[in-house]
Design brief:
By secondary structure, the chain is an alpha+beta fold. It has one domain. The chain is 32% helix and 21% strand. The chain contains one helix and three strands. It has a three-stranded antiparallel β-sheet, covered by helices on one side. Strand 1 and strand 2 form a beta hairpin. The protein starts with 8 loop residues before the first strand and ends with a helix. 3% of the residues are buried.
Length: 66
C-alpha cells in the first residue's frame, strides 16, 4: 500500500514529486498565476519534505522583503 501524500505534493506518472501552493488573494496582483506549481525533481517523499520547507521559507522571505 502506498504512502499518503500531503495535499501540496503531487506525483506525476513517472514518480516525480511536484509542489503546488495557492497564492494568497492579497498578493496575487504581483503574480501571473493563482498557483505556484513546481517540480521537486525527486521521487522520495522524505527528501520532498525538506525541499518543500526550503521553498516555503524562501517564499516567505520574498513576501516580507518586497
Amino acid at each position: 500500500m502506498g504512502t499518503k501524500l500531503p495535499s501540496n505534493l503531487h506525483r506525476n506518472r513517472h514518480g516525480v514529486l511536484y509542489f503546488g501552493i495557492n497564492i494568497p488573494k492579497d498578493i496575487r496582483c504581483y503574480f501571473e498565476t493563482k498557483v505556484i506549481y513546481r517540480s521537486l525533481r525527486i521521487s522520495s517523499i522524505r527528501l520532498a519534505y525538506d525541499a518543500v520547507q526550503f521553498i516555503v521559507l524562501k517564499a516567505k522571505n520574498i513576501v516580507i522583503y518586497t
